[in-house]
Amino acid sequence: MDCLFCAIAAGEIPSSKVYEDETVLVFKDIAPVAPIHYLVIPKEHVASSAAEISETNAPIVAHIFTVIAQIAAKEGFADGFRVLTNCGASAGQTVNHLHFHVLAGKEFE
Ligand code: AMP
Ligand code: ZN
């Protein structure tokens, strides 16, 4: 499968890594829209978007949100951040590998 985030997870394409464990990778977005802009992905291509979240792959989604909370606490932005996922091209999704944007470090509207 030709998937950019699978290639990043495999280390075939370099990324600015923030956190990694057995199942999850967090790296800096190449085109940040906030002072902190991370992408959180399951290393495995368990879903192309949030529209494919199911009982089967929900545990990795739960783990992703646990990792996000831990990073927010560790990096000191737990009191003000945004998590978002674009689902479908019409919603702005450009990479079809489930991912969550974590944005922090500014005042949001
Ligand atoms: P989305 O548009 O929601 O699918 O998010 C995809 C995100 O991936 C965008 O915010 C891009 O800036 C980001 N992106 C694309 N290529 C790379 C890359 N090589 N490294 C890091 N982030 C990337
Ligand atoms: Zn993928």
Question: Summary?
Answer:
It contains two helices and five strands, in the order H-E-E-E-H-E-E.
Fold and architecture overview:
With 109 residues, this protein is α+β, with helices and mostly antiparallel strands. Helices cover 22% and strands 23% of the residues. The protein contains two helices and five strands, in the order H-E-E-E-H-E-E. The chain has a five-stranded antiparallel beta sheet, covered by helices on one side. The termini are far apart. The relative contact order is 0.22. Bound molecules: adenosine monophosphate and zinc ion (ZN). Zinc ion (ZN) is lined by residues 3, 5-6, 45, 97. Zinc ion binds at residues 3, 5-6, 45, 97.
**N/C terminus separation:** 38 Å
Low-confidence stretches: none
What oligomeric state is this? single chain
Structural class: alpha+beta
Count of DSSP-assigned helices: 2
Secondary structure: number of strands: 5
Q: List the secondary-structure elements in sequence, H or E.
A: HEEEHEE
Fraction in helix: 10-25%
Shape: globular
Strand content: 15-25%
What strand order characterises the main sheet?
Answer: 1-2-3-5-4
The whole-angstrom Rg is 13 Å
Mean pLDDT: 97
Sheet with the most strands, sense and barrel status: 5 strands, antiparallel
Give the bound compounds: adenosine monophosphate, zinc ion
